[in-house]
Specification:
Number of helices: 3
Structural class: alpha+beta
Shape: globular
Order of helices and strands: HEEEHEEH
Strand content: 15-25%
CATH superfamily: HIT-like
Helix content: 25-40%
Radius of gyration: 17 Å
CATH class: Alpha Beta
Largest sheet: 5 strands, antiparallel
Strand order of the largest sheet: 1-2-3-5-4
Number of domains: 1
CATH topology: HIT family, subunit A
């Protein structure tokens, strides 16, 4: 994995406004926030995309993410927020180390703007795709 800004933050080479840290996870304020309280949550394990992250590191993020959301809500007074996680440049990932954004949404002008180009699911294709995905999940070793 390439040397990223997050790797340098984890190592202490670059300072951050730390919100939380444990053996597996580091959370800190984004230096280019979309809104006040915009927090990044990263695994200490190096992985570019979520599918490359170990189950242990994923579980560690899953355990702390709700607590961090509660902290953002409490500190900012904002009840609405988005969780954003991008994988690959085609999905707008800019730093190639897994990271989650907690982005407070205090009103319609601040926070994340999201477009959702929904389409109808073709049921024949959906059935085949779900079956293929279920087989892929079952085929993975624990």
């Amino acid at each position: 994995m390439a040397d990223t800004i997050f790797k340098r933050i984890i190592s202490g080479e670059i300072p951050c406004h730390k919100v939380y840290e444990d053996e597996h996870v580091l959370a800190f304020l984004d230096i280019n926030p979309v809104s006040r309280g915009h927090t990044l949550v990263i695994p200490k394990e190096p992985a570019e995309t979520l599918d490359q992250l170990s189950d242990e590191a994923s579980a560690a993020i899953g355990r702390v993410l709700p607590r961090l959301c509660r902290a953002v809500v409490q500190a900012t007074g904002t009840k609405a927020y988005n969780i954003l996680q991008n994988n690959g440049s085609g999905a707008h990932q800019a730093v190639f180390h897994v990271h989650f954004h907690i982005i407070p949404k205090p009103d319609s002008r601040q926070g994340l703007g999201v477009g959702w180009p929904a389409r109808r699911l073709d049921h024949t294709d959906g059935a085949a795709l779900a079956s293929e995905m279920a087989a892929a999940v079952a085929g993975r070793g624990e």
